[in-house]
Amino acid sequence: MMDYMSNFSPPSRDNSIIEITNFIVKIPTFKSISIEYINKETAKQFDIVTDSGKTRGSAAGWSTYERPEIIKRTRANLNMLAYKKFRFKAIIKTLVYLNKAYFDTLDRY
To answer: How many domains does the chain divide into?
Structure first.
C-alpha cells in the first residue's frame, strides 16, 4: 500500500491543515479551545515540520511521518494552553475564597 501511495503527492497545505484541525477538534480535551486557535497552531506546526512547505514527500511520507508529527506537536502546545487556562482559573478561585475570608473577618471584627 505504501508503495502505491508513494506515487502520489501529499495533500496541499490548506487541505493538510484542515485534516489535522478536524482530527484535533474531535478530542474532548480541546473542546474549550476555539477552532481558529487550533487552526492557527496547526498551521504554525505544519510550517515548522515541513520547513514552510519546502520539504514535502509523497502521500506515504505524509501519512507516516508528517501528519503524526504535526499532530503530536500541536497536541503538546494545546495541552500547555489548557494547563495554563486551568491554572488561571484555579488562581482566580483561590483569590475569590481569600477575598471572601478577608471580608468575613472584617465583618466579625
So the answer is: 1
For residue 51, give every residue at least 6 positions away whose Cβ sits within 8 Å of its Cβ, in sequence order, or none.
none
Quote the pTM value: 0.78
pLDDT tens digit at each of 109 positions of the chain? 666 777 788 888 999 999 999 999 999 988 888 999 999 999 999 999 988 777 788 888 888 889 999 999 999 999 999 899 899 999 999 999 999 999 999 999 8
Residue 10: which domain range? 2-108
Give residues with Cβ within 8 angstroms of 88, minimum separation 6. Answer: none
Q: Do the Cβ atoms of 70 and 45 come closer than 8 Å?
A: yes
Q: Hey, how many other C-beta atoms are within 10 angstroms of the C-beta on 40?
A: 13
